[in-house]
Amino acid sequence: MAPRAYWKGYLKLSLVSCPIALFPAASSSERISFNRVNKKTGHRLKQLMVDADSGQPVDKEDIGRGYEYAKGQYLFVEDEELDKIKIESTHTIDIGSFVPRAEIDDRYLDTPYYIAPTDQVGQEAFTVIRDAMRDKKVVGLARLVLQRREHVLMLEPFDKGLLGTTLRYAYEVRSAADYFEDIPDLKLPAEMKQLAAHIIEGKSDHFDPKSFEDHYENALVELLRTKQAGKPVQTIGEAPAAPRVINLMDALRASISASAKKPAAASKETRRAAPKKKAASR
Question: What is the pLDDT of residue 226?
Answer without folding.
Answer: 87
